[in-house]
Amino acid sequence: MPTETHPQGPAIAEQTLLVWNGRLKMRVKVAGNGAPLLYLHPSAGLAWDPFLSYLAQRYTVYAPEFPGTSVGDPYAIHSIHNLADVVLAYEELVRSLGLHDPVVVGQSFGGMLAAELAATFPDLFSS
Where does the AB hydrolase-1 domain lie (predicted)? Predict the structure, then answer.
């Protein structure tokens, strides 16, 4: 798993998972040590910033890139047809990562997605 270090933050590992019956490739950045936290970014894309470094001081932050915003698979969005598809893909991602009761945090579009995930799969998240 490749890692990168930011001057004012933790080492960030990156992994790619195939989800949704192998139709969707999702890149996930991981950093920190502690209880799992799923961070869902705004529609503009994922950028590791001081906020995520702050969260990584207390949590193990899992920050997946929304399909279609990743440089690794820019056409992945074509597998998604509606919000229900997105929710199912992220539910499978959480299970594939082996996360147990992660905290879920989202900004903007990521916040809406976090609310949908928590409402649809309440047993999957701690808060």
Answer: 40-118
Domain residue limits at 53:
3-124
C-beta of residue 106 within 8 angstroms of C-beta of residue 40: yes
| Tokens 């929304």 found at | 66
Identify the helix (H) or strand (E) that includes residue 119.
Answer: helix 109-120
Reported as a single tens digit per residue, the pLDDT across 12-63 is: 999 988 887 777 888 999 999 999 999 999 888 888 889 999 999 999 999 9
Distance CA 116, CA 17 (A): 22
CA atoms of 108 and 113, how far apart (whole Å):
9
Rounded to two decimals, what is the model's pTM?
Answer: 0.86
Rounded to whole angstroms, how far apart are CA atoms 84 and 127? 20
Give how many domains the chain has, as a whole number: 1
- Cβ count within 10 A of residue 74: 11
